[in-house]
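Hey,
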Amino acid sequence: MPNPVIIFAFVIATMYGLSFHVVLGGNARRMVLFVVSSWVGFLLGQYIGGFLDIRFMRIGVIHLLPASIAAVALLIFAHVLTAEPSAPVTRR
C-alpha cells in the first residue's frame, strides 16, 4: 500500500499543474508537461525544504511552502519555454 504522505503530495502537485493548465490553456501535450513539471518542482522543493530544515507551513513531513514555490517556479519556466512567440509589432 502506498504511503499516504506520498499520495497527498502527489495530489497537491497534480492540482498545481492542472490549475496552471486551466488558467493558461493549451493542448493535452502542454497539460502533461505542466503536471510533470509540477511533480518535479514539488519534489525538488520538498528536498530543499528538508535540507534547509524549513519548518514554516509544514503539513506532517511535507514542506508545503518550499515545495509550492519550486513547483510554481518550474511551471512558469515550462510555460516560458513552450509559449508561442507573439507577432512582432510594426510601426506605420
